UniProtKB/TrEMBL annotation:
<dbReference type="GO" id="GO:0006614">
    <property type="term" value="P:SRP-dependent cotranslational protein targeting to membrane"/>
</dbReference>
<keyword id="KW-0342">GTP-binding</keyword>
<keyword id="KW-0472">Membrane</keyword>
<dbReference type="Pfam" id="PF00448">
    <property type="entry name" value="SRP54"/>
</dbReference>
<dbReference type="InterPro" id="IPR000897">
    <property type="entry name" value="SRP54_GTPase_dom"/>
</dbReference>
<feature type="compositionally biased region" description="Low complexity">
    <location>
        <begin position="74"/>
        <end position="86"/>
    </location>
</feature>
<feature type="binding site">
    <location>
        <begin position="287"/>
        <end position="291"/>
    </location>
    <ligand>
        <name>GTP</name>
    </ligand>
</feature>
<feature type="transmembrane region" description="Helical">
    <location>
        <begin position="6"/>
        <end position="29"/>
    </location>
</feature>
<dbReference type="InterPro" id="IPR036225">
    <property type="entry name" value="SRP/SRP_N"/>
</dbReference>
<feature type="domain" description="SRP54-type proteins GTP-binding">
    <location>
        <begin position="370"/>
        <end position="383"/>
    </location>
</feature>
<dbReference type="InterPro" id="IPR003593">
    <property type="entry name" value="AAA+_ATPase"/>
</dbReference>
<dbReference type="Pfam" id="PF02881">
    <property type="entry name" value="SRP54_N"/>
</dbReference>
<dbReference type="InterPro" id="IPR042101">
    <property type="entry name" value="SRP54_N_sf"/>
</dbReference>
<keyword id="KW-0547">Nucleotide-binding</keyword>
<feature type="compositionally biased region" description="Basic and acidic residues">
    <location>
        <begin position="40"/>
        <end position="49"/>
    </location>
</feature>
<feature type="binding site">
    <location>
        <begin position="349"/>
        <end position="352"/>
    </location>
    <ligand>
        <name>GTP</name>
    </ligand>
</feature>
<keyword id="KW-1133">Transmembrane helix</keyword>
Length: 397
């Protein structure tokens, strides 16, 4: 028998992989469209005043509930791999989750909040009070530079404006904190279509920061905004990563493109973007393998993934996921990742735990990269757009 040309063999194998991915994607898109048709039916029923015909009460429509798909709406509904029962989650609307997360942040007993409270409630503010306040700010990961700047400005304003009561001190403190967090930074998530191409968002970070979970939660945010999303499981090194991402997508009817374990991550990412272009989705979210920022070879490979994707469509956003509890180490990570893949936004996870909050100022100050999203819990909808005013008001209590 004549030997088969390796190039021809590679093309055949690639075609089979794409065909299999296409079948799974088609089924998942059918589930997504079925959900959209059901939502439309609910709206029409509500307009007729027949809430019962809409398939759920007002509480269910507010978010966090579960919508059961009618099998008659789509013959493929509920058959996608990893979908489980014939149920799709109803993600919470971004507006309501932001209000809830603000309340959660306000309830955290972190060092920054305590230091601000002590300054405002201590009566006479003497030299010892200022020194304690300065030490608290530094320990909250605000950094020496921003801390010195904030304390100097507060001392000057308190003296010049003759602050004598807590309400006035609180107003000035809010203004100065807000200036540090910088509400004027562009925190827009650049995930919109560009011409005929979908928005392409790469999500990067070291292991253990909650990167894959963040991709899944971000998909939920987009689905809540009635947008078509596709996931790319380009983390081919961690055995459970693709399964984890596929499960997140299946919950809300979002398809996932994945490869074999150990496959070339750049090829999987490229195939995902190709599928996104063909299906005319609004956005493709690419999960990448977690890697240590100190490993030069792995970081170079991350740059390769971005370059290969851009042969098909431009990468419109690169989000770096940082564990807010890591403090200064998170800042070091941000510097190196930015050099390799031009990070355009930060996602701070675990801000609800022992995180000190000051890293928000440091990352933005030193890198010029805005914090765009924050994670404040383990729930599937505990990811929200970062809002400078909401953050400052929350830590002031």
């Amino acid at each position: 028998m004549a030997a088969v040309d390796p190039l021809i063999l590679s093309i055949i194998i690639g075609a089979v992989v794409l065909l299999a991915a296409g079948i799974g994607i088609g089924v998942a898109v059918g589930r997504r469209r079925a959900l959209e048709r059901q939502r439309q039916a609910e709206l029409e029923a509500e307009q007729r005043g027949d809430a019962g015909a809409a398939g759920g009460g007002d509480d269910d429509r507010e978010g966090g509930g579960v919508a059961t798909l009618d099998p008659d709406l789509d013959p493929g509904a509920g058959t996608a791999a990893g979908a489980g029962p014939d149920l799709l989650d109803r993600p919470e609307a971004p507006r309501t989750r932001l209000q809830r997360l603000r309340a959660r942040l306000a309830g955290q007993n972190n060092a920054l909040s305590r230091g601000l409270l002590n300054l405002l409630s201590g009566g006479t503010i003497d030299e010892e009070t200022w020194e304690d306040f300065e030490a608290t700010l530094i320990s909250s990961d605000l950094g020496v530079g921003p801390t010195t700047e904030l304390v100097d400005r507060l001392r000057t304003r308190f003296k010049v404006e003759g602050v004598t009561d807590g309400a006035e001190a609180r107003r000035i403190l809010r203004e100065e904190l807000l200036a540090l967090v910088d509400p004027n930074l562009d925190r827009t998530l650049h995930d919109q279509r560009v011409g005929d191409d979908p928005g392409v968002v790469m999500v990067v970070g070291v292991n253990g920061t909650g990167k894959t979970t963040t991709v899944g939660k971000l998909a939920r945010v987009m689905v809540a905004e009635d947008r078509d999303v596709l996931l790319g499981a380009a983390d081919t090194f961690r055995a459970a990563a693709a399964d984890q991402l596929e499960t997140w997508g299946a919950r809300v009817g979002v398809p996932t493109v994945r490869g074999a374990e150990g496959a070339d991550p750049a090829s999987v990412a490229y195939e995902a973007v190709t599928a996104g272009v063909d299906l005319e989705v609004d956005c493709v979210l690419i999960d990448t393998a977690g890697r240590l920022h100190t490993k030069t070879g792995l970081m170079d490979e991350l740059g390769k993934v971005k370059r290969v994707i851009e042969k098909k469509a431009p990468v419109t956003e690169v989000l770096l996921v940082i564990d807010a509890t890591t403090g200064q180490n998170g800042l070091i990570q941000a510097r190196i990742f930015r050099e390799v893949v031009d990070v355009t936004g930060i996602v701070l996870t675990k801000l609800d735990g022992s995180a000190k909050g000051g890293i928000i100022v440091q990352v933005q100050r030193e890198l010029g990269v805005p914090v765009k999203l924050v994670g404040l819990g383990e729930g599937p909808d505990d990811l929200a757009p970062f809002d400078a005013e909401e953050f400052v008001d929350a830590i002031l209590g």
